[in-house]
Design a protein that fits this description.
Elements: H1 3-14, E1 22-25, H2 37-45, E2 48-51, H3 54-63, E3 70-72, H4 78-90, E4 95-98, H5 111-119, E5 124-127, H6 132-138, E6 147-152, H7 157-167, E7 173-178, H8 183-194, E8 199-204, E9 212-217, H9 221-226, E10 236-240, H10 245-261, H11 266-277, H12 281-298
Parallel strand pairs: 1-4, 1-5, 2-3, 2-4, 6-7
Antiparallel strand pairs: 7-10, 8-9, 8-10
Helix pairs in contact: 4-5, 7-8, 10-11, 10-12, 11-12
The structure holds S-adenosylmethionine (SAM).
S-adenosylmethionine binds near residues 106, 131, 207 and 237.
Length: about 300
């Protein structure tokens, strides 16, 4: 091993890695080299690996000459598997929790296991590393500012449209994960709900051979994707600019109107909101009316 790597490995080794702890370890999102020395050290030290897909993780570990017993902890068995993990931890084992790719618990299994370990009063040690979320944001630029991470949108068109309508005035940039077979319809739904003028960053196949980052307006996004079938392949992260200033004000008004509507008629709500905000009573009346209608439909 080169001298510098040796020194860094010593750094990783120098830390205290208590027995009976769960280590939450990020793994690469494409390029197998994107794993930290500390992650490798902990994976080599662990007595057992709690993995979303044990075969997938064994293949990754084999590339680093590591082979360990494993427990499958996935979306469908996380609660029951957590009990087994806790038994092993109580017996003094070090267990490393990994998902298929990236950081566990971020649109991936891991969060319930972490809750169970914390509830059992056992130590939890997170190791930082790759995530499609932070990798995208690192190359997104200043158009984002603050952001909200939404993970995957609902897959059914009606639920997706309703989720996006609720986000239409959200002041922060919105970050989504998306699958290739839905990417075109999702960008179309985003343009319909948020308007075509906002900027979107389409990050595809990060850290892999066909990595690409494309920024355009929401109106342009579906046709850009459709112009070349290759642009619709692989894994995606979408970052959409937050609502423009006038919509942010509308969002603040919506919050006030929604609260007032809990106790008052639409007319009184508009009158009081106009006094408090100085905005047009007529515009507030129209908005309060549509909120009241939407809430009745949802009930
Ligand atoms: N826990 C992972 C993380 O930290 O990024 C995310 C897991 S989630 C099940 C998988 C989704 O993350 C994919 O559908 C895609 O939206 C996004 N993703 C994962 N790897 C990616 C990559 N290399 N390029 C772009 N998006 C990726």
């Amino acid at each position: 091993m080169p001298a510098l790597m040796l020194q860094l490995s010593e750094l990783a080794e120098a830390q205290n890695y208590p027995a009976g702890a769960l280590y939450v370890v990020a793994t690469p999102i494409g390029n197998a080299a994107d794993i930290t020395l500390r992650a490798l050290h902990v994976l080599a030290l662990a007595d057992r690996i709690a993995a979303e897909d044990t075969r997938n993780t064994s293949q990754l570990l084999a590339r680093y000459g590591i082979s360990k017993p494993s427990i499958a902890v996935h979306e469908h068995n996380e609660r029951s598997a957590a009990e087994r993990v806790i038994e092993h931890l109580r017996a003094g084992e070090r267990i490393a929790c990994v998902s298929d790719a990236g950081t566990p618990g971020i649109s991936d299994p891991g969060a319930r296991l972490v809750d169970a370990v914390r509830d059992a009063g056992l130590p939890l040690i997170p190791l930082p590393g790759a995530s499609a979320l932070t990798t995208t944001l690192s190359a997104a630029g200043a158009f984002i500012g603050r952001f909200s991470f939404l993970g995957f949108l609902p897959t059914k068109a009606k639920q997706r449209a309703s989720a996006l309508t609720k986000l239409a005035h959200h002041p922060q940039a919105l970050v989504f994960y998306e699958a290739p077979h839905r990417i075109v319809e999702t960008t179309r739904a985003l343009a319909d709900a948020l308007g075509g003028e906002r900027q979107i960053l389409i990050a595809r196949e990060l850290t892999k051979l066909h990595e690409s980052l494309h920024r355009c307006t929401l109106a342009e996004a579906p046709s850009w994707l459709e112009a070349d079938a290759n642009r619709q392949r692989g894994e995606f992260v979408l970052v959409v600019e937050g609502a423009p200033e006038q919509e942010k004000a509308a969002d603040a008004h919506d919050a006030l109107l929604t609260t007032l509507l809990e106790k008052l008629s639409v007319k009184s709500t508009a009158r009081i909101a106009a006094t408090l905000t100085g905005a047009s009573r007529h515009a507030l009346y129209e908005r309060a009316l549509s909120i009241a209608k939407r809430d009745t439909e949802e009930e």
